[in-house]
Design brief:
This protein has 15 helices and 3 strands. By secondary structure, the chain is mainly alpha-helical. Bound molecules: acetyl coenzyme *A and oxaloacetate ion. The site of oxaloacetate ion has 7 residues, from loops.
Length: 362
């Protein structure tokens, strides 16, 4: 047997038509479209139409999907609202895990639609419940991004906020075989169903090394505080063995293309603000420090650095960042789940046993 690959690095574990991450060129393609062609130009529903195409029975037009998601948000609200008291005392991500796990496998709506629609409904209701505010019912006529902000805030969001969130949700919709998508595909490969696969994916996303990085990015900016502290603070963090959140990637050896897409969004919301200028200085300092202290590894900015600044500019609380990532990524998860269950075999790699062998019989 060959040696194990640490972290499955470089192992190709699935064929997919959904997305391609070109780590050398810094390019991300969704089904034949560069991310720059989609983000800021199309709706989340249009990306769902693109990624789900061929896996579902319903017509793939974005308007049809928008209507179906609207109806599914109403259904999700009916399922989730009575369960909110059970989430008291949990974080929003933990509450989301609980409510998603309660989606019944027998529910008579297409499960990829209900899982996708449930995300904004549950996140908004859980965030409001935390502040003793009543859940706001969905408006099925709105697109997901606009309805999420409306359900969260209890009032319609401004067009610039809706557009910024929409761009973010499109940007993070899919990303090859990242940890959460791989998890979704493993669970789907056992035929456990869409809801179980999505719950498992959310659990993988929750970790700080994957979708949990943007909140800590802001914590890092706050902790650094002043321009003259940037490099000393970062050097100290690395010498303590910490990782700089928002930097490094398993696949990209150059800058993550989504960083520039989201930097443009952050600038559009907060042009000329001290916060963005400071973040740019921290980014530049981090790249210098990483090149100096980790010379063997090409570490660059990843999607999470400017995600943090976009979500902060949208005045969203830090503990909602991971669940909001899930509102975008569920489109990719469900597409991969459907792709995996179309004839894919159970995912079952092997391990190399390095433990002791039984003692020979005396
Ligand atoms: C949506 C997303 O999930 S994007 C990723 C979000 N996560 C983060 O931003 C967290 C910070 N980044 C990281 O922890 C990593 O870069 C990961 C998890 C994203 C990728 O990890 P891997 O490709 O497995 O890199 P690996 O863990 O093998 O690290 C290789 C070397 O680079 C170093 N390194 C990698 N990322 C960083 C970082 N952000 N800061 C400091 N050092 C780093 C490691 O310490 C290691 O060096 P060492 O061998 O001297 O210890
Ligand atoms: O691809 C990865 O490993 C992590 C990532 O950037 C994502 O999931 O968007």
């Amino acid at each position: 047997m060959t040696a194990a690959s640490d972290g499955l690095d470089g192992i190709i574990a699935a064929e997919t038509v959904l997305s391609h991450v070109d780590g050398e060129q810094g390019r991300l393609i969704f089904r034949g479209h560069d991310i720059e062609e989609l983000a800021g130009h199309v709706s989340q529903e249009a990306v769902a139409a693109l990624l789900w195409h061929g896996f579902t029975d319903e017509a793939a037009a974005p308007e049809t999907i928008s209507r179906a998601l609207g109806e599914a948000r109403v259904a999700a609200f009916e399922i989730g609202r009575p369960l909110l008291p059970a989430a008291a005392g949990l974080t929003v991500t933990e509450g989301l895990r609980l409510l998603l796990a309660a989606l019944p496998d027998t529910y008579p709506l297409p499960h990829h639609l209900l899982a996708t629609a449930a995300m904004p409904v549950f996140v908004a209701a859980l965030a409001r419940a935390r502040q003793d505010a009543a859940a706001v019912p969905p408006d099925p006529a709105l697109p997901q991004a606009a309805d999420f902000l409306r359900m969260l805030r209890g009032m319609p969001a401004t067009p610039d906020h809706v557009a910024a969130l929409e761009t973010y949700l499109v940007t993070v919709a899919d990303h090859g075989l990242n940890a959460s998508t791989f998890t979704a595909r493993v669970v789907a490969s056992t035929r456990a169903g869409v809801f179980s696969s999505v719950v498992a994916a959310l659990c993988a996303l929750k970790g700080p090394l994957h979708g949990g990085a943007p909140g800590p990015v802001l914590d890092m900016l706050d902790a650094i505080g002043y321009e003259d502290q940037i490099e000393p603070w970062l050097e100290h963090a690395i010498s303590d063995g910490d990782r700089l959140m928002g930097f490094g990637h398993r696949v990209y050896r150059v800058r993550d293309p989504r960083a520039d897409v989201l930097k443009t969004v952050a600038l559009s919301l907060r042009a000329g603000s001290n916060r963005i200028r400071f973040a740019e200085a921290v980014e530049a300092g981090a790249l210098r420090v990483l090149a100096r202290l980790k010379p063997g590894r090409r570490l660059d900015t990843n999607v999470e650095f400017y995600t943090a600044l976009v979500l902060e500019a949208l005045e969203l609380p830090r503990d909602l960042f991971t669940p909001i990532f899930a509102i975008g990524r569920v489109v990719g998860w469900t597409a991969h789940i459907m792709e995996q269950t179309r004839g894919g075999r159970i995912i079952r790699p092997q391990s190399a046993y390095v433990g002791p062998m039984p003692k020979a019989a005396a």
